[in-house]
């Protein structure tokens, strides 16, 4: 059973997560540019903090979703919450690490560029498990989500999973993968998280 305080916290988490996701996208797509690879000395520290906010709030949303949708009576949702939470913790560990390495005094054998690139590709695993979690949230919904939220959730979950598996097996080109990633990660994901904010705020 979710409490009023937990509902309020969940609502705050969703809004912060949406803002952090959009800020991250704007910087990577327009300020830094999609062609630059590795750690950015000018904005790396700022993006690390944005990533930290994004990761912490995502963890909060995942954990509280189990209470909101009664995962105690839904083993698939409980499993999705547990596994996605664990994967997200691993991703969170990479938020600040590149900047710590870049500013390190005696770093040997590893670079901020390497860890930043590793974090980038680790995100795809996190996206895949997030799709699994979203799909189970939609399945467990009993009217908490707005009707459009279920549609968006299903589209995000199944669409992003299909694209990520196509990328994993090397059957999708960059010309299709990049716009698909933008659609599912920058449009549908924030839209679903906004639907989650409505579910948290509706008593």
How would you briefly describe this protein structure?
By secondary structure, this protein is mainly α.
Rg, rounded, reads 17 Å
β-strand amount? under 5%
The H/E string reads HHHHHHH
| Class from helix and strand fractions | mainly alpha
Overall number of domains: 1
Helix content: over 70%
Stretches where pLDDT is under 50 for at least 5 consecutive residues are none
Write down the overall mean pLDDT.
Answer: 96
- The number of strands is 0
For the largest beta-sheet, the strand count, sense and barrel status come to: none
How many angstroms separate the termini?
A: 12 Å
Number of helix segments? 7
Which geometry do the CA atoms define? globular
Explain what the structure shows.
By secondary structure, the chain is an all-alpha fold. It has one domain (4-201). The protein is 77% helix and 0% strand. The longest helix is centred in the middle third of the chain and has 29 residues, at 112-140. It is globular.
Give structural attributes.
203 residues; mainly alpha
Element layout with pairings:
Layout: H1 4-31, H2 44-68, H3 75-93, H4 97-102, H5 112-140, H6 147-168, H7 174-201
């Amino acid at each position: 059973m979710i409490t009023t305080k937990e509902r309020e916290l969940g609502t705050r988490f969703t809004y912060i997560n949406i803002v952090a996701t959009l800020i991250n996208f704007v910087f990577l797509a327009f300020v830094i540019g999609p062609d630059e690879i590795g750690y950015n000395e000018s904005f790396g520290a700022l993006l690390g903090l944005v990533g930290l906010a994004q990761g912490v709030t995502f963890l909060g949303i995942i954990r509280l979703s189990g209470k909101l949708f009664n995962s105690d009576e839904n083993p698939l949702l409980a499993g999705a919450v547990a596994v996605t939470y664990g994967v997200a913790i691993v991703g969170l560990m990479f938020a600040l690490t590149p900047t710590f390495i870049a500013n390190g005094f005696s770093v040997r054998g590893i670079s901020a560029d390497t860890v930043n690139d590793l974090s980038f590709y680790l995100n795809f695993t996190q996206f895949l498990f997030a799709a699994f979690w979203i799909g189970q949230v939609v399945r467990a919904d009993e009217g908490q989500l707005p009707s459009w939220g279920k549609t968006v959730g299903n589209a995000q979950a199944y669409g992003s999973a299909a694209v990520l598996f196509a990328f994993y097996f090397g059957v999708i080109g960059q010309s299709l993968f990049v716009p698909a990633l933008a659609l599912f990660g920058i449009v549908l994901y924030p839209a679903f998280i906004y639907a989650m904010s409505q579910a948290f705020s509706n008593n």
